[in-house]
Design goal:
130 residues, alpha+beta, Deoxyribonuclease I, Chain A, four-stranded mixed beta sheet, 25% helix, Endo/exonu/phosph_ase_sf, Endonuclease/exonuclease/phosphatase domain-containing protein
Length: 130
């Protein structure tokens, strides 16, 4: 399976989506180049520091001209997959990896060693290629 995978960790703007959208704008020229050059669908993932996955997905569509779906979202963590012109696949399962319970999404002294010192658990998506 061939994929172009991009990720970001947007700046914190009190939950607003501006920094996440800016990150998408910066990444999309290279993301499009990778997808077109290698004839591969793309995944865009990260800690977007906003729960507004619709704005992030909309920015991906607006800046690439491609269609996208949110395949996993857990608070600030999101995974978006291209659906056209290249199909990433079918999501069979998604969720958060809890590992160890902890307070998620706080501003200080809340990083969890079981989450690689993040302030929220990692998320996953099982995707079956087309």
């Amino acid at each position: 399976v061939k994929l172009c995978v991009f990720g970001t960790h947007s700046a914190w703007q009190y939950g607003k989506s501006g920094a996440a959208i800016d990150a998408v704008k910066v990444a999309t020229p290279l993301l499009k180049e990778c997808s077109d050059k290698h004839d591969a669908p793309a995944i865009f993932t990260g800690d977007f520091n906003t729960v507004d996955s619709e704005s992030v997905r909309g920015a991906l569509k607006d800046n690439t001209g491609y269609d996208w779906v949110t395949v996993a979202a857990g608070g600030f963590a999101q995974v978006h997959a291209m659906t056209s012109p290249r199909q990433t696949g079918t999501v069979t399962q998604q969720g958060a990896v809890q590992g160890a319970n902890g307070r998620a999404g706080c501003e200080e002294k809340c990083q969890n060693e079981f989450w690689a010192w993040s302030d929220h658990p990692p998320i996953y998506a099982d995707i079956v290629p087309p």
